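Ticket opened by: R.M.
Priority: normal
Category: complex prediction / small molecule

The reporter submitted a protein together with zinc ion and asked that the result be attached to this ticket for the collaborator who will pick it up next week. Submitted input follows.
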Amino acid sequence: MNTNAPRYYWQQVDWESLMRDYPPPPLFEKTTGRLSADEMRALQNDRFMARMAEAWKVPFYRDRWTEAGLEPGDVRSLDDIERIPAFTSDDLKEAIEAAPPFGSHQPVTADDLAERPIRILTSGGTTGLPRVTLFDQHSMEIQGIQTARALYAQGLRAGDIIQITYTNSLANAAWCAYQGAYHWLGAVPLTTGSGVVTPSERQLQIARAWGTTAWWTRGEYLARLAQVAAETGVDLPALGTRGLHTHIGPDIDGHLRRRLEDAWNAPVFDNYGSHEIGPISFECRARDRKHVSEDTVFVEICDIDTGETLPNGSRGNVVATSLYRSLPPIIRYNMRDIMILYDREACECGLQTHKLSTFLGRSDEMVKLRGTNVYPLACQNAVSRDPRTTGEFLCVVSHEGEGLARREKFVVRIERRSNSVDAKALHDDMAASLHRDLGVRVDVEIAEPGSLSEFTGLGLQNKVRRLLDLRQ
Ligand SMILES: [Zn+2]
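Result attached by the on-call engineer:
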């Protein structure tokens, strides 16, 4: 029998020191959010060195770093960070297989679970079990504070009702908003979940009946809700939405944003984050690139092929180091998300931070097509720009031919908005736009409205799938 005494969550957090170290809004905007470059670097350095000392005790890091020729003491400050080998989610997957159930990167075993409040959240998992990450009370609350800072900078205030259409289940996107709004803003979380939990038509009925003023959801799902509103006669602008807090993806020319803002008559705010690191960056009311949450995460942009850290202004993989996480430490995690990091500057909102560009694609979804690197997410721009589409698409990669004649076939399936749209004309225009955006000719097929959702998972799952790889 388990004889452990209960532990009370509220006693496990030193709330005053948490708020001093990681100030929630509005304190953040008056303190940590406007440190000078030198002051911020010093704060980051202190936190980085504390995380390094912890990580050296964790087998995953100790083994990898020793193998790379590093010894404790070799990395003396943040200036030496490039000496540390980066890792990817594939390495985490291996670490979990090697030391189940939680993996050699997490300094907790099943025997330690009673020592502090722990939650299990997961990410990924298209094959096998999803990838597990443990969260202690510290990580959960700081993720909430990170999200609250973003939502506050975007105008969410106490008493606002924020409808969260990610499901509060194993992934952290819904929990971030829930904790940010509820614990750290005094806004009201309305956890309707994804379309599986609450169908789209019902989502809109609830929003109208209970007075939703803000949404936390994917850009694609906001487009889907707009379509459902049009089909069911819901007057979307009449909902009085004040903010669409979202993850808009590779909206390079801003077409999806404009389309959503026109449909909802409300501003779109883009955010970027990850399961292990939490919210990394957010747009403020200026909506001019995304502020990096610099006291919680150190961001580098690295060359996709060589892994070398690139100067600011270059395009490459985001490599992130969590400055607050001990369970597990996350040091130089190559997210394989392609973005650009920009120099620090004073923003009109008052924050002074580095900023990240719009999301430009995922380097692990890259398909080599006749010598050109093609990223499925790069199709979003052309598809969402054209009002004859629903904005929905799916890239299908397969092999055709045999032996030496075998080659990659890349088809972009695109939904037309209704069956009154001329499929032939749309096909030809899409083929031309995609050729221009991708730099290589791809095949296009026009699909009927709503027909791709069973493949993309739109409205059903927290993530939208854009690549169907049939090559294996
Ligand atoms: Zn700003």
